[in-house]
Amino acid sequence: MLRAMNRVSQVVTQHLETHPIPGAAWAVGLAGRLEFGCAGHLWHTSDAPRVTLETIWDLASLTKVLVTAPLLLRLWQAGRLDLDAPLVDTLPEVRGMPLGTATVKQLASHSAGLAALSKLRYWNLPRDAALRRSLEEPRPQIGITYSDQGFIALTYLLEKLYGSRLDEVAERELFAPCGVGLTYHPNANQCAATELDAATGELLRGSVHDENTRAMDGISGHAGLFGSVTDVAKYLEALIGGRVLSAAALRVMGAELARDTTDARAFGWVLRFDDWLGGQVAPAGALGHTGFTGTGAWISLETGQINVLLTNRVCPSRHGESGIAQLRRAFNDAAWGRKTALES
């Protein structure tokens, strides 16, 4: 087991030494038997504080699978949401709009036909008005197109059905019951930095990196969540252990909803496919997701394994060649190999 964990640690630390990623933290193992590691600095200068297991990271699009997907599935298991029904059945205000005929499953699997990029940041609207405006987006695509737009629309749906703002719903329904410190409102002094803000020239630290989320006061279903590696891993233990969702809801979460030659989608999560970022030795049915800032989480509902890798690869700029795809694949190939060691 020690030799296997050393292999994971070596993969990450050697990559940090040869690529411009300031820091990283990781968790690997079976639920209830996780091991943790960390390396590097909170930002890109050598005098920056060292990363610890308590360092808080901008989780970016991990928000989609840690907040939005489970909240939707909790509504489904309570009989309050039909995931296969046209959205207009739940939201009469989308009648006559392109999204009116889309389903929650299509939105959650990026197969609703929405374009890849949202221009919400340019609308200059208050948050509530921007959410309503997101329901009017056209659906020009076919197949799978990874798009934040669908999860912005799902934010509107969740807030409508739960009757509260998304950060309040997530804390009440998910984080407090699991005893984790995942949050939309981090202590900036505990955060790893992300990118130099073009407007101010200062490093973003504790302020969400995603521009559309910033235009929504930092609270959305597609990005905005912050957390430490220990809290992410503890929450994933609760998720796959049935303390967040029922067994039936977990089956819905992991079922294939859309697939093409370069992608495979479950409910929010990415399913294992050839050359995915979750490594080539991942078990069949493994699920994963990444975040633009350099974060990632991968799970197996069958074996109970959890792999979490959190980095700030966009610090000080998203435009450097960080080799993050290479790192994610190598990390996961090493991590999945721990299953035998843990069980021996």
How far is it from the N-terminal to the C-terminal residue, by CA? 8 Å
| Secondary-structure arrangement, i.e. CATH architecture of the largest domain | 3-Layer(aba) Sandwich
Percent range of helical residues = 25-40%
> Could you give a short account of the major beta sheet?
6 strands, antiparallel
Helix-strand pattern, N to C?
A: HEEEHHHHHHEHHEEEEEEHH
Q: Which fold name is given in CATH as the topology of the largest domain?
A: Beta-lactamase
What do we call the CATH homologous superfamily of the largest domain? DD-peptidase/beta-lactamase superfamily
**How many domains comprise the coordinates?**
2
Taking pLDDT < 50 over at least 5 consecutive residues as the criterion, the unreliable ranges are: 339-344
Specify the CATH class of the largest domain.
Alpha Beta
Average pLDDT over all residues: 95
